């Protein structure tokens, strides 16, 4: 069982997660400079510059760039000293759970709110045991994962609070940039995210002690030549990825504008269809509009989500199920914790209804109108 559709993209297909790419000549200038100075990795000029830019953008003291978001989560988990059990949603990308399990921490899956798709804080409290050391919130689709409530719960129970902010680059909560909540937040810069470095990510924190530890862990624990002072891993970002990042950052506003225009176009085209709901975003906050998430209610819509995806695929639109069937129904969790589903009725229901449609700077309004007419024509 995997979360990929069987059909691989063909030329001409419209698919979810087409990378946003900034100015090509700016990128190539930077690549030439990397080759000229022959500094390819290990805290090169572009990595340091990208870290500065991202820290400033998020209003945090420290940004530690890493080779990908999953390794970033692992480094943050290690630096926070998380052990025993950690509470997280099952309705997330599998990396959130794997990053914990990889370090021998038991992921305790908690149910979500049907409306926000994010952790339900009351249910988080009910899943705390004497072995719980942390809460891992995920700002799904870029919508805030109840930062205030989770901050209170973590403080009350003496838990670490980590956020997987892989979806939330450029989003705010109560005017404050997501990335600055909890003890640590982790971003992903994977090719499919709003802002990408091909592969990459960053760990954000305001805590000096954690930042220092995470920089050590990222580089094998080296505190200078020949001096290893901590267990570490190779989590470094290289200069080529940072060069793409700096270039893409220069076009971030354009990517977000395109996404927003696309979202509004989908909204206009789909708004009035019974049984189909396009998720919304708080217009008073900054959003990145990166995920066009539709929920299909089979009874009212006439066909189910899976049939809808099949029809879209046949018409060269690679819409995707997202986070179906939930982490708890994938290995190794399915075998290790076969009872998890009992606690996750909302997760199971949402995972069966959600469908994600193409957007990004490469998706035109004309294409969106075509996609929406396929959807309308599929109603029996
Ligand atoms: C993309 C993603 C990750 C993993 O990030 P990588 O950079 O691909 O390792 C983790 N969590 C969520 C929610 C994601 O969407």
Which regions have little confidence, pLDDT < 50, spanning 5+ residues?
none
Structure class: alpha/beta
Query: For this structure, what is the CATH class of the largest domain?
Result: Alpha Beta
Say which CATH homologous superfamily of the largest domain is assigned.
Type I PLP-dependent aspartate aminotransferase-like (Major domain)
Total count of helical runs of at least 4 residues: 14
Beta-strand proportion: 15-25%
Q: List the bound ligands.
A: pyridoxal-5'-phosphate
How many beta-strand runs?
14
- Roughly what percent helix? 25-40%
Largest sheet: 7 strands, mixed
Give the overall pLDDT as a whole number.
96
| CATH architecture classification name of the largest domain | 3-Layer(aba) Sandwich
Overall spatial form: globular
CATH T-level fold name of the largest domain: Aspartate Aminotransferase, domain 2
Widest sheet: strand order? Answer: 2-10-9-6-5-3-4
Report what the structure shows.
By secondary structure, the protein is an alpha/beta fold. It folds into two domains: about 25-250, 3-Layer(aba) Sandwich (Aspartate Aminotransferase, domain 2), CATH 3.40.640.10; about 250-380, Aspartate Aminotransferase, domain 1. It is built from 14 helices and 14 strands. It has a seven-stranded mixed β-sheet with strand order 2-10-9-6-5-3-4, with helices on both faces. Strands 11-12-14 form a three-stranded antiparallel β-sheet. It has a two-stranded parallel sheet with strand order 1-13. Helix 4 links the parallel strand 3 (about 85-90) and strand 4 (about 105-110). Helix 2 crosses helix 8. The longest helix has 19 residues, at about 250-270. It is globular. Bound molecules: pyridoxal-5'-phosphate. Pyridoxal-5'-phosphate binds near residues 96, 138 and 167.
């Amino acid at each position: 069982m995997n979360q990929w559709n069987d059909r691989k993209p063909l030329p001409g297909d419209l698919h979810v997660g087409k990378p946003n790419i900034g100015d090509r000549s700016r990128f190539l200038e930077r690549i030439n400079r990397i080759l000229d100075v022959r500094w390819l990795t290990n805290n090169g000029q572009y990595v340091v510059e990208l870290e500065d830019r991202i820290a400033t953008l998020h209003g945090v003291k420290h940004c530690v760039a890493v080779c990908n978001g999953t390794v970033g989560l692992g480094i943050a988990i290690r630096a926070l000293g998380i052990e025993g059990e950690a509470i997280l949603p099952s309705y997330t990308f599998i990396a959130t759970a794997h990053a914990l399990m990889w370090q021998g921490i038991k992921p305790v899956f908690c149910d979500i709110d049907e409306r926000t798709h994010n952790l339900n804080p009351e249910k988080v409290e009910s899943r705390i045991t004497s072995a719980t050391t942390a809460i891992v919130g995920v700002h799904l689709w870029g919508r805030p994962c109840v930062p205030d409530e989770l901050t209170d719960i973590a403080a009350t129970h003496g838990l670490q609070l980590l956020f997987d902010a892989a979806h939330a680059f450029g989003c705010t909560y109560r005017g404050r940039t997501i990335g600055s909540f909890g003890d640590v937040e982790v971003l992903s810069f994977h090719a499919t995210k709003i802002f990408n470095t091909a592969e990459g990510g960053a760990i954000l924190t305001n805590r000096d002690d954690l930042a220092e530890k995470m920089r050590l862990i990222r580089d094998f624990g080296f505190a200078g030549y020949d001096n290893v002072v901590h267990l570490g891993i190779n989590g470094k970002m290289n200069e080529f990825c940072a060069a793409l990042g700096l270039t893409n950052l220069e076009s971030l506003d354009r990517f977000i504008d395109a996404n927003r225009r696309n979202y509004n176009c989908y909204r206009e085209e789909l708004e009035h269809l019974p049984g189909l709901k396009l998720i919304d975003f708080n217009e008073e906050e900054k959003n990145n509009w990166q995920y066009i998430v539709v929920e299909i209610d089979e009874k009212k819509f006439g066909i189910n989500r899976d049939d809808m995806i099949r029809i879209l695929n046949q018409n060269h639109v690679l819409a995707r199920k997202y986070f179906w069937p939930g982490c708890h129904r994938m290995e190794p969790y399915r075998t290790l914790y076969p009872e998890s589903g009992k606690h996750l009725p909302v997760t199971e229901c949402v995972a069966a209804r959600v469908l994600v449609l193409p957007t990004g700077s490469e998706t035109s309004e004309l294409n969106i109108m075509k996609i929406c007419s396929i959807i309308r024509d599929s109603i029996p």
